[in-house]
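Work through this protein:
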Amino acid sequence: MRLAIDATPLTLPTGGVSRYTAELSTALARSFPEDEFWLLSDQSFPHPAPHLANLLTAAGPTGPLDRRWWLWGLPRAIARHSIDLFHGTDFSVPYLRLRPSVLTLHDLSPWLDPSWHHNAGRVRRRTPLLLRLGRATMVLTPSETVRRAAIDRFDIPPSRIAAVPHGANPRFRPVSAPPPPVPYFLYVGTLEPRKNLPLLLDAWRQARLKVPVDLVLAGRARPDFPPLAPEPGLHVLGPVPEDELPRLYSQALACLYPSLYEGFGLPVLEAMQCGALVLASRDPAIAELASHAALLLDPSDPRAWSQALIETASNPNFAPPFRALALARAADFSWDRAAAQTREVYAEAIRRFRSR
C-alpha cells in the first residue's frame, strides 16, 4: 500500500506537530515495511531520521498550477505516486475527495481563544468546512478528551473519529549526570500565549525569594510571544536539540507545564519517560495523559504554583514517589503503538471510502 503524509509541519525546527509528524512517519515505516510512506509538501523540509527505505520524499510543486497546493498541486502529486490514502497531520486534507483521507485534529485551541494563535485564521475557517463536507474520511485526535470535544463542536459521527495517543522517542530516558551548579525548574515547549508562561514566571519569582533555584525555558519563541527581559536565574535557551533534552529533563528539580489548554501535552510524556517530577496544569487532556503520575495544579492560581515550587525545592522526599509513578505511566505509551493504531484507522478509512 502507498500512503502519503503531509510533511509541511517538518518545515518548523521544533513544536508538537512537527515532532508528531516526524515520529509517527518513522514509526509507521518501521512497523510496516511492506508499505510505502510518501512525505509530501509544497515546501522544503528535512527528512526525519533515521532514513528508512520505505519512507520517501517527493518533489514539491512542478509548475504554476501546483502552487495552489491543496486544490491542485497535492492531488496531482497523490495521483503521480499512485497514493492509496492521504494523512493530513496538521488540521487539513485535500479539498477534492479523490482518495480516502485521515485528518489529525490535535486540539480545539484555534476555536477556543483567537488570542492563542496569531495566524490560525485559515485553520479556523477551513477545518470546520472540511469536516462538515466529509472531506476527511476519518479523523484522529491525540486524546479522548479532544475526541469528545470535537464530536460536540463539529457534529462528527463518533464512528468516524478515533483517539490515538502519542508516544515518546526511546531517547527520552533517565540520564545519570553530575548535578547542575544551581538547581533548576524546566519548561520545554513553544513560547506562546497558550502556555501560560507569565503565571510560571510569577510563581518562580515568588519561590526564588525563599529557595535558590533557577528557571530554564527550552523552546522556540513564536513571533507573537513578547521577548523576556534578562533577569538573574532565568535561562532562555531557545530551540534545543532533541538529543540534549533527556539530560535537561533528568537533571531538573521538576518539569513545569502550566498550559491553559492542551490536546495531549507531549513534553509531559517525554519528561515522565525520563523519570522527572512533572508539575502541570489541571487540564483535562493532561490529566488523561498523566493520570496520578504528575502533580496537577490550577493554571489560574499562581500562589498554588509558587507553593508547589517551594515544596519541590525544599523537600527532598517530595519528588521520588512521583518519579516512580511517572516511569510506570510513561510505559503505557509508545510511537510504535501509535503507529499500529493509526494504521488501523487508515484501513478503516479505505474501507469506508470504497463502500460509500
